[in-house]
Amino acid sequence: MTDSTSDRALQTRIVHPEVELAPGFESFVTPVMRGSTVIFPNTAAVRTGSWRDDTQWRYGLQGTPTSAALAQRLAAIEGGKYALLQPSGLSSISNVYFGVVKSGDDVLIPDNVYSPNYDHGKWLAEDFGVSVRRYDPMIGGGIADLIQPNTSLIWMEAPGSLTMEVPDVRAIAAAARARNVITAIDNTYSAGLAFRPLELGVDISVQALTKYQSGASDVLMGATITADEAIYLKLKRARMHLGLGVSVDDCSLVLRSLPNMKVRFEAHDRSALALARWLKTRPEVVSVLHPALPDCPGHETFMREFTGAGGLFSVVFDARYSIEQIDAFVDALDLFAIGWSWGGAQSLAMPYDIAALRTASQWPYGGMLVRFYVGLEEEADLRADIERALTSALG
Ligand SMILES: *Cc1c(COP(=O)(O)O)cnc(C)c1O
């Protein structure tokens, strides 16, 4: 301790400690670097910096080395250049809206979209002078006919996480690019592992990191990923004004799960596909909507563009079963919990009445849909659980 500081009071020395640590500590762990205040080296650095500049740390809300390390890994997974983190998947969706849509603009949203995304669009339509139209997710290049001079954003989801239609992302992105319309895809389903939309011409990929990236049902976070600097800066500006910071402790949890995400994804995929194939043989089931199986609209696109499917699929029950019977089936499941979200180790099931969610496309089934998320339990136990619940509720 230098002479000038040693005569300061203990309290001051506790507030401004002179810590001397042994050098040379190394581990595999990204340090949790917290900070709201970021210390500038001098006043000149305060005056010369800009929010656009990623090489200067300015304020904890914009990120710390911990969040930046996570963002970099996420950009790499998707083949993007820039990733921004938001405190939930839904706030990532909101960041896209506020980044690229202004009053007077028109937005196209597919019928298979995550429904809070559509609700967000409706809010902008009601209160912010934006027009929002829905389209049939199977429209492909036909989207060109829907693009208006004021269309500024086209959303996609591949597959839709309830109804599982796989849109022709390549064709929609090409039609949008030809008219200078920005495209954004909710790519949560594939975690960026099994599908790389930026390489097919999509401008922005959105991830709900709450799902596979967290992997333990304990973190809420989202990301927007792009390879385009101008779009990145639009998103970054909106994120700054909206104050969408993330907790570095949460980033640390996601960083902890990321190395085993691919192995988990493949394990979910194997069990889910086996259960989906088996459910197709059951007399209670009319259709199994798993994109790797032919019942699913867009199956060919999926086989062409995706390398895997993960743990989600949906089952359409025969119309002879009432909502109450299907609810009783879901209630009778033991290993499948009832709850929103997915991506953790535990299996989930949720019943839906899809016809009520549709506007731009016809839903071809009369029966109820149950969306399954297949966790990391033994597949044989999950099968036995479903079989028992089918017999007790519908048998
Ligand atoms: C869960 C989910 C979101 C939203 O993520 P949150 O972190 O729960 O806000 C968005 N899109 C899809 C497809 C999702 O499954």
From TrEMBL:
It catalyses: L,L-cystathionine + H2O = L-homocysteine + pyruvate + NH4(+). Its EC number is 4.4.1.8. The keyword Lyase applies. The modification N6-(pyridoxal phosphate)lysine is found at K211. InterPro entries: Cys/Met-Metab_PyrdxlP-dep_enz (IPR000277), Cys_b_lyase_bac (IPR006233), PyrdxlP-dep_Trfase (IPR015424), PyrdxlP-dep_Trfase_major (IPR015421), PyrdxlP-dep_Trfase_small (IPR015422). One of its GO terms (molecular function) is cysteine-S-conjugate beta-lyase activity. It is an enzyme of class 4 (lyase). Keywords: Lyase, Pyridoxal phosphate. Gene3D superfamilies: Aspartate Aminotransferase, domain 1 (3.90.1150.10), Type I PLP-dependent aspartate aminotransferase-like (Major domain) (3.40.640.10). One of its GO terms (biological process) is transsulfuration. Its cofactor is pyridoxal 5'-phosphate. The keyword Lyase applies. Belongs to the trans-sulfuration enzymes family. This is Cystathionine beta-lyase. It comes from Trinickia fusca.
